[in-house]
Automatic annotation (TrEMBL):
<feature type="domain" description="Xylose isomerase-like TIM barrel">
    <location>
        <begin position="37"/>
        <end position="288"/>
    </location>
</feature>
<dbReference type="InterPro" id="IPR036237">
    <property type="entry name" value="Xyl_isomerase-like_sf"/>
</dbReference>
<dbReference type="Pfam" id="PF01261">
    <property type="entry name" value="AP_endonuc_2"/>
</dbReference>
<dbReference type="InterPro" id="IPR050312">
    <property type="entry name" value="IolE/XylAMocC-like"/>
</dbReference>
<dbReference type="InterPro" id="IPR013022">
    <property type="entry name" value="Xyl_isomerase-like_TIM-brl"/>
</dbReference>
<keyword id="KW-0170">Cobalt</keyword>
<comment type="similarity">
    <text>Belongs to the IolE/MocC family.</text>
</comment>
<dbReference type="InterPro" id="IPR030823">
    <property type="entry name" value="IolE/MocC"/>
</dbReference>
<comment type="pathway">
    <text>Polyol metabolism; myo-inositol degradation into acetyl-CoA; acetyl-CoA from myo-inositol: step 2/7.</text>
</comment>
<keyword id="KW-0456">Lyase</keyword>
<dbReference type="InterPro" id="IPR023952">
    <property type="entry name" value="IolE"/>
</dbReference>
<keyword id="KW-0464">Manganese</keyword>
<dbReference type="GO" id="GO:0050114">
    <property type="term" value="F:myo-inosose-2 dehydratase activity"/>
</dbReference>
<protein>
    <recommendedName>
        <fullName>Inosose dehydratase</fullName>
        <ecNumber>4.2.1.44</ecNumber>
    </recommendedName>
</protein>
Amino acid sequence: MTAEVKIKFGCAPIAWTNDDMPELGSENSFEQCISEMALAGYTGTEIGNKYPRHPETLKRYLDIRGLQVVSAWFSSFLTTKPFEETKQAFIEHRDFLHAMGAKVIVVSEQGHSVQGQMETPVFKEKPVFTDSEWDLLTQGLEALGELASEKGMAIVYHHHMGTGVQTTAEIDRLMENTSPEKVSLLFDTGHLVFSGENPIEIYKKYQSRIKHIHFKDIREAVANGVKDNQDSFLVGVKKGVFTVPGDGMIDFDPIMKEIIESEYGGWIVVEAEQDPAKANPFEYALKARKYIDRLLQQKELI
Ligand SMILES: O=C1C[C@@H](O)[C@H](O)[C@@H](O)C1=O
Ligand SMILES: [Co+2]
């Protein structure tokens, strides 16, 4: 090794069983999922709906496979529900992740979100927050950030297709109106490129606040089709808009260069939801791991 790579690589279970559409991959078991992740060379995992929710039980399954919990998704409803409701659910989620040794908590605002709606065109009908909803969001996120820091953790905000924080302007507004001490950012390559944003620009601008990364690639023709046909986010996923890094339109080489130059020391999680009946999750997880290794080898980092 010629230089120190501080990045750790994890894999998301969504390629085996999709939490947004549990019928996708319902046949894949929890143990198959984590065994295949480990076999493909990952050391971290996020949490899916088949994972045991009891920390000691989950640890037993993961430890013997050399896996650790990196984070897990949390849906906030700061713009549509009383803060207390989000707060109670968040504390439960935080305490579980803390018991599992995770350092960051993925948060995404689902108030007015269309990401889970099968019939709603994702580009045309994504929500746009009003000024007062923005205030509820930014103040609520700062409060969640304070709750996270009570346990030495941080919240990482997940910009997402079909939500009120999707575009560059919306990410900018969120970052400008929240304190870096309380709200960090998750950088998801797939969502940025699908939305038409420039991932390098976002990475450069917010590298000091990016504490978690999701790597996914985009099948360009499918993404264009989703836009032209006015498909929903979920229909786009079923059609195969997402795939693993190295299999789509995104050039990860300059992205990896920025990440390495910024001395990023967190996790990069390969998260490429697609229909497991069409894209074997183990095969694709391995393909991504080999592609990432090739990128690091070209930079003489491994
Ligand atoms: O991080 C994520 C979690 C999923 O549930 C979501 O829909 C996916 O697209 C994603 O990026
Ligand atoms: Co993601």
